[in-house]
Design a protein that fits this description.
The complex is a heterodimer of chains A (262) and B (374). Chain A is α/β, with parallel strands linked by helices and 262 residues long. Chain A is 34% helix and 27% strand. In chain A, a hairpin with a 2-residue loop joins strand 11 and strand 12. Chain B is mostly helical and 374 residues long. Chain B has one domain. In chain B, the strands form two sheets. Chain B has a two-stranded antiparallel ribbon with strand order 1-4. A two-stranded antiparallel ribbon of chain B has the order 2-3. Classes of the chains: A alpha/beta (262), B mainly alpha (374).
Chain lengths: 262, 374
């Protein structure tokens, strides 16, 4: 654990109101470099709003964001990306019709100058893409293979590899495993573990307690726009996490009738 | 999917090895290349003796193809960026009328009239692009509105100022202008004269132009078409901006999240489409010496059909400028070829509809192959 280090990102009492709707009513969270911080919560708990605030899509109504100890204001996603906060969205990671190499360098295209004009450096892009994919354990037919031919887990992995390659210090993963099969899920979890070991802070959003416990170092539970507390790995049982997420009582009775399998 | 299920041991066992044929099928230009061969083969058999492949005949269908190609390049890049422009035809009429009114009726120098028209039309293109992005409405609807607005304005402006819908006399005022020859002129005229003098190409044997070659040179229209195709192809496939065009059309939201300035890309593409429409209009006005309020009718659809024949997907994110140019060539050759072959020219529209259907079906099939959808 790296709790003795300074947190790379700190969110303090973040509030976000959409008109009359209070989506976040004061959420605090800090993330250390090299840790996987799981953000759990049921649908509508405010997870998505919260990470969108962190990644510059939304501006908080109240509250402060500290990045590497300094207060930060992100006006656009671009600002957060250049600061080193990368977000991988569940189904918005990749463009299926484009090749893996074109996707990998989307928004960060390498260029070379020929006769005073900047051209897309396809050779460099292809080489880097093949090498990075190999590191992540994905064998491509070629860098021009369309992303559409990859599985959902592989797409997530490509997106994560892309964020890491372009210098992300904080990697936000929005439900990366929710649409995946068992085997693909373990691939993505293994990727998360690999990324964390590089010293990158990972914010892992999920509503699956088992996926969270598999890779998480700390767990923060959101419910109805509020933080229900953060706990360390080993200090909380899956059942407790599950209860926190659901807000307690109702699920306990439901779980009883289902034999504790939820 | 195919039966070629041989797998390389090193690769993922679930990814089927693709045959070279299927791989080439995935290139967007394939339909265009095959179609071009077919069309030339057909007319070589049926219309060889009609003069279709004499210098004058070649020039005839080349000019028509070049007209299609110029607007197809704009429509192609815009479609790959995920948008449509149905106002191209009306823009052509509007631009032509603007040049004629400014130069003939208001007496402006022709170069100033042309430049003003370019600026005005590209501003209109930018405005319709901005509307599409701000309102989030489909570009189909927004530009359909502009189709009517621009056409109506064109007719109104012509009637209100001159009481006519056709304004002539542009050729007279364009005499000696420095910019007009870039649209209405011809290049390599000396070369063609020289070939005519040597008896290699046909010359007029009597009349005032005796001794001059029938084909005087390459019209600037063709030069514009070739230049725009090369420019568009390089931008799309070899630059960072090209990657942004693909990304904006492929999935605008994903592209935004990785930092691609999607709105800017789309607005620039709307402006570029307007630019190609004005190139078309200016060349036409300089060639005919007049502007008509009904010019460019249905051109937007012909441009879009060329692009679709060229392998671009109507849904955006995939396509090829070279393909679109081949689509335009097919168009020009068939339209003029039917005339040379002595076939009733109304059949051209039948051909248009049939080939559009075939192209769309083929493209859908290709897209499924690329993305592995069912």
């Amino acid at each position: 654990m790296t709790t003795e280090h300074a947190p790379i990102i700190q969110m303090k009492n973040i509030e976000k109101h959409f008109g009359a709707v209070i989506a976040l009513a004061g959420v605090s969270l800090d993330v250390m470099p090299g840790e996987c911080h799981c953000l759990l919560g049921d649908n509508g708990a405010g997870k998505s709003t919260f990470i969108k605030t962190m990644s510059g899509v939304h501006k908080p109504t109240k509250g402060e964001i500290f990045f590497e100890g300094k207060p930060m204001h992100f006006d656009r996603p671009r600002d957060a990306i250049s600061a080193g906060i990368a977000t991988v969205y569940q189904d918005l990671a990749m463009i299926p019709l484009m090749s893996v190499a074109r996707n990998f360098f989307m928004g960060n295209e390498p260029t070379k100058r020929i006769a005073g004009m900047n051209f897309f450096d396809h050779k460099h892009a292809n080489e880097v893409t093949m090498a990075e994919m190999k590191k992540m354990g994905i064998n491509l037919r070629g860098p021009d293979q369309a992303v559409g031919t990859l599985s959902g887990g592989e797409r997530q992995t490509v997106a994560i590899a892309r964020a890491v390659h372009f210098g992300a210090k904080v990697l936000i993963l929005d439900e990366p495993t929710s649409a995946l099969g068992v085997r693909q899920t373990s691939n993505v979890l293994a990727t998360v573990d690999r990324v964390r070991k590089k010293g990158i802070a990972v914010v892992f959003i999920t509503h699956n307690v088992r996926h969270a416990l598999a890779v998480g170092d700390r767990f923060t539970v959101l419910n109805r726009g509020l933080t229900l507390g953060t706990s360390q790995r080993g200090m909380i049982t899956p059942e407790e996490l599950q209860d926190l997420m659901a807000g307690g009582q109702e699920l306990a009775t439901l779980e009883g009738s289902l034999g504790g399998t939820v | 999917m195919s039966d070629n299920t041989k797998t390389k041991p090193s690769s993922d066992e679930r990814v089927k090895e693709m045959s070279g044929f299927r791989k080439s099928l995935i290139r967007p230009e394939l339909g265009g290349i095959a179609g071009t061969f077919l069309v030339f083969f057909f007319f070589f058999l049926t219309a060889r003796d009609s003069g279709m492949f004499s210098p004058a005949g070649v020039m005839n269908w080349s000019v028509v193809s070049a007209q299609f190609a110029i607007i197809a390049v704009g429509a192609c890049l815009l479609m790959i960026a995920g948008e449509f422009d149905l106002s191209v035809g009306s823009m052509i009429g509007f631009a032509g009328m603007s040049i004629a009114l400014l130069s003939v009726s208001l007496g402006w120098p022709v170069w100033l009239a042309i430049i003003t028209t370019f600026v005005l039309c590209m501003a209109i293109g930018a405005f319709s692009g901005w509307l599409v992005i701000k309102t989030g409405l489909p570009s189909f609807i927004v530009t359909l509105a502009f189709l009517f607005i621009l056409r109506g304005l064109t007719i109104f402006a012509a009637i209100a100022t001159t009481r006519k819908t056709i304004i002539g006399g542009v050729r007279d005022v364009a005499e000696g202008d420095w910019l007009a020859p870039f649209f209405g002129g011809k290049i390599f005229t000396g070369f063609f004269q020289w070939m005519g003098d040597n008896g290699w190409i046909e010359t007029f044997s009597r009349g005032t132009r005796e001794g001059q070659p029938v084909v005087e040179g390459i019209p600037m229209l063709i030069v514009w078409a070739i230049a725009l195709v090369i420019f568009g192809h390089i931008i799309l496939t070899k630059t960072r901006f090209g990657n942004w065009i693909f990304a904006s059309g492929g999935d605008a939201q994903s592209a935004r999240y990785t930092g691609v300035p999607v709105n800017r890309v789309k607005i620039i593409m709307f402006m570029f489409t307007a630019f190609t429409a004005v190139v078309f209009a200016t060349s036409q006005v300089m060639e005919f010496g007049s502007a008509g309020a009904d010019r460019g009718l249905l051109k937007e659809f012909e441009a879009i059909i060329s692009v679709v024949i060229g392998g671009a997907l109507l849904t955006g994110g995939y396509g090829s400028v070279i393909g679109a140019a081949l689509g335009a060539l097919i168009f020009g050759v068939v339209q003029q070829g039917l005339f040379f072959a002595g076939v009733e020219s109304s059949l051209f529209r039948v051909f248009l509809g049939v080939i559009l259907l075939l192209a769309v079906i083929l493209n859908t099939y290709i897209r499924r192959m690329i993305t592995g959808e069912k």
